[in-house]
Design a protein that fits this description.
This protein is an all-beta fold. About 0% of the residues lie in helices and about 55% in strands.
């Protein structure tokens, strides 16, 4: 998984290592490590369904901006706070199967 800042582009490379063609839904989550209010441990931010033939590889890219990391603060205003975030990508939400990287906004 690769993350580039400003307009954030997160790319994940998939490969079907099986013998059958099939679909995979790549999910992108984030965790706001430092915020003024309590936030979810994993918040779904984007997803894409991909079809892969046996042995086929594809790169899935998600284009995000700062507003995608916004929250509702104690004053009930939607804001994007600077801070540390963990991005997680994978086919399911289990910690052991997710690719992870940290970013600072």
């Amino acid at each position: 998984m690769k993350a580039e800042t400003d307009t954030l582009i997160v790319s994940v490379r998939l490969k079907n290592t099986g013998t059958y063609a099939g679909h995979e839904i790549v999910k992108l989550y984030f965790n706001d490590l430092v915020s003024s209010v309590m936030t979810p441990v994993k918040q779904l931010i984007a997803f894409e369904k991909v079809f892969l033939e046996p042995g086929e590889s594809k790169t899935v890219s998600f284009k995000l901006d700062r507003d995608d990391f916004s929250l509702v603060n104690a004053e009930e205003e939607r804001v994007t706070e600077p801070g540390k975030f963990i991005l997680m990508a994978g086919g399911d939400c289990r910690d052991e199967s997710l690719l992870k990287t940290g970013i600072i906004l």
